[in-house]
Amino acid sequence: MARQIRCLPVLLAVGALLLAACGGSANHGFPGTAGEYPLQAHTVAFDGREYSFAWIAGDASIHQAKGHDVQLVQDERSYLAVGQGTPILHLTQDEPIAVRGKDRDGAFTSSWFPFFLGYALGSGGPAPTQPSYRYPPTDTFSRGDTLHGAEATTRAAPPDYSKVKPAPNAVSGQNTGTGAGTAASNRDTNAAVSGQSGGAGSGAAGAPTGAPGRSESRCRP
What we know:
The protein is mostly beta strands. The chain contains one helix and 15 strands, in the order αβββββββββββββββ. It has a domain at 27-91: CATH 2.40.50. The protein is globular. The termini are far apart.
């Protein structure tokens, strides 16, 4: 009996380690071996909390990964780097991230270019070539809009958008839906106020073209 009691702390410690290994990770589906892994083109998405994407293993097999503890950095090619702390998504300047949202018409995605030069780069912060937690410059935009620049934070969580003032030209394009959507958040969009974007801009899901417009749509929580 005494021997069993002496062994109890060891068993509890082992159990805690197993729980941490199985369910404590913020990321799922990431490579188990340190290295650089190419990304399948145009698969990076953000749902308001977590990033998801497809990476390619050495045997050419494709794997899906998802997690919120991910940093972004601008690079000359797109790939995932793991094994040296926080996983880092290296993205080219023209690699879009699909930001998922929902408005009164249902689910939609808008393209976000966190490193696209010539447009607003959020409220400053680290250089594009410095890995950082980065998030869309705003959480309110409409169907057909394109987002440029990013908000950087020191932890793996989006900023408090009620305190973030989007930089000029952070959102461009022409709204094609019936009202404003709230992307990258879980707010109720039934109270969305309809609006119309002014200016000529890109509403396509791809690299932005034309002059940026000004989105006047807003959502209320």
